[in-house]
Design a protein that fits this description.
This protein is mainly alpha-helical and 360 residues long. Among the domains are: 94-100 and 188-271, no CATH class; 103-185; 287-359, no CATH class. The chain has 14 helices and four strands. It has helices spanning 8-13, 50-69, 83-92, 103-133, 138-141, 143-153, 158-185, 191-204, 232-243, 247-253, 257-260, 273-305, 308-332, 337-359, and strands at 25-30, 33-38, 98-100, 222-224. The strands form two sheets. A two-stranded antiparallel ribbon has the order 1-2. It has a two-stranded antiparallel sheet with strand order 3-4. Strand 1 and strand 2 (33-38) form a beta hairpin. The chain is extended, with a radius of gyration of 35 Å.
Amino acid sequence: MTHQTISQESKIEKAAPPNHEGDFVINIDIDSRATTAKNSIVDQGKCRSPVAGKEAKALALKAANAEVNHLETTPLESYPRGYPLLAAFQSSDSCFSIYRGFDYLHARAILDLQDELRCLEDDLADLDQMDDNNGRSKCLTSRASDLKQAKRTGKPCQRSKILEQIRDKLIIYDELLLKRSQLNALQKPSTRDYRSLRRWFFNEKPLSYVLEEQYVKIKEDLVSLREGREWASFDGWIEERVKQLPRCLTRRFFTTPELRAKTSDKHIYYCSASRVERLVGLIITLIVFVLLVLPVVGMYKLTSMGTHNSTFDTVGILVVFTLLFSAAMSLLTKAKRHELFAASAAYCAVLVVFISNFNK
């Protein structure tokens, strides 16, 4: 799909020229609407000054930018209490998208279809064996012969009927299995997100019927639609630390105007995921920088001494910082085992190269 970028400058440059009355009209097409701005009449309709034209163009561009940048956010408080408020809250942020997975019901439905298919499988096997025993083996080697045999008896082909039922059941069974596999891939809600949802339920009590809100208490059957980020556990810890900052700092640096407009409740914090990820990225960059620079500096100072003990101390620094690097990779990222081994080996190899160069 190609995307077209609307240039406001080009729209202004193509504005209509002054009419006979000296009015300068600028047409800006934004959001399928035309915004018209007029400058004052200059020189009694005979001519307009360049300064006035530039001012009109600037005013039109400012008005267009204001129209384009204007955003509307519906606050949570505007929704009626009940399911409207609950739906608005759970859709306000991906961390609140927590719902029941119905693991038990999926298993029951799969088992029921499985047994229905088993019965059809047995019926098909019995029919095949009966035809083989009664000398109608040709019906098993040729589908056309089987249909002709059924036509002679004036009855529908029993084998085709069973196979049709099997096909219909298999389509449902396979679809249910694949959907269940996709549901199993969904992650469980983190403790932090689950507690946030429970606290909101406790504070707001959106539903009046107790049984309808019991689903939030069945934690083992809940799934989260929130996509896991690369540093899921670490950036979750960072988000917790951010929320412990003074509210003015949190709203200033870690929220956007749209997030601030979502609610006036002082107990609800909306943090911009992109801003938190930038902070996490900065922290991890600093950690990697320290893990690369400190061992190099330490090994350089030890090897410059030229003593026997300094060599063992250098090897000790190599081992310690390789372990620290592996621990950082394991805690701060979702690296797989082979990726963790490869990164640790590469890090250790870099430090060994530095040691060999220092000893020359």
